[in-house]
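Summary: Need help interpreting a holo structure output

Steps to reproduce:
1. Submit the protein chain below together with the SMILES for flavin-adenine dinucleotide.
2. Request a joint structure prediction with the ligand placed.
3. Inspect the structure token block that comes back.

Expected: a single structure record containing both the chain and the bound molecule.
Actual: see attached output.

Input attached:
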Amino acid sequence: MKVLTDFDLTNYNSYRIKAKCKRAYFPETEEDVISFYKKEEPFVLLGSGHNVILSKDYYDTNFLVFNGNFQDSIVNSSTDEIVAESGITMLNLSELALENGLSGLEIFYDIPSSLGGAVVMNAGASGEEIKDVLVKVRYLDLDDMIIKEIYKEDMGFEYRNSFFQRNTNKVILKVWLKLQLMEKSIIKEKMETIKEQRWAKQPKDYPNAGSVFKRPKGYYVGAIMDELGLKGFAIGGAKISEKHGGFIINYNAAKGQDIIDIIVEVKKRVMERFNVDLEIEQRII
Ligand SMILES: Cc1cc2nc3c(=O)[nH]c(=O)nc-3n(C[C@H](O)[C@H](O)[C@H](O)COP(=O)(O)OP(=O)(O)OC[C@H]3O[C@@H](n4cnc5c(N)ncnc54)[C@H](O)[C@@H]3O)c2cc1C
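--- attached output ---
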């Protein structure tokens, strides 16, 4: 397993916040993951880093990173299933599905994520979520260091919430996805159409980590920001995107704390005006 000391995390978080960690481990096998946890040292688990806010400049802890490593996959054409390790990117997985004429992962062509991160976050868009195609998950339970499997039905999925978000002592290793046979050209067209629609709305010119808040019942975060005049509101090097009020962008060497300060201020103003307690979607590390 590759292990790097004083590792620069800037390119491993999509906000591009500058931070380092004591050591970064990049597992290739289940044995690597188990050996990492046998050390019993404090750790941070990171997928592809597209939904995290790094709050420190330096982490005196080890990071276990699933970002394009630990990414073997198998396509089972008799059952239309793909079984993949949790470090594979959703981009690669959606392209693998396309190559095999399997539909169900088109939205993930433009949701930057590792497979493990997508399950934890129950990532989705356009009315679809990863749970719709999920069969089961194999994971390492850090409570007893036993590898277990859990079926979708037992994972209590909700909007941007899952069993694994509520139980952070479980490490996703492998995922079974059930897809549907379909004409490749139809799959490709859906991928490209969704991507085009999303790019038209999202701020692609500055680093960000997607929607900061979960959508509150009966409201849209973008519309709330418009009404409060908060688009463009900045603290330090971070600001609320003028293009999409649900996104915070790093426009000038932002610190994680700048982003957190904006979140605190927005939550306060939204509570005062709408009596709504905005819930953060992103994970503060
Ligand atoms: C431009 C942009 C657009 C986005 N659009 C969307 C969208 O449309 N829909 C959407 O849902 N999200 C969206 N996001 C957010 C992000 O893509 C998802 O939340 C994604 O699923 C995060 O996955 P990740 O691998 O990057 O996880 P990370 O950010 O690395 O981690 C997220 C959490 O998952 C945990 N985790 C990661 N891997 C594992 C594992 N193997 N086992 C256990 N825990 C693990 C981490 O510890 C952390 O708590 C967007 C982000 C960006 C930057």
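--- end attachment ---

Reviewer comment: Residues 108 and 279 are 23 Å apart (CA to CA). The first helix runs from residue 30 to 38.
Status: needs-info
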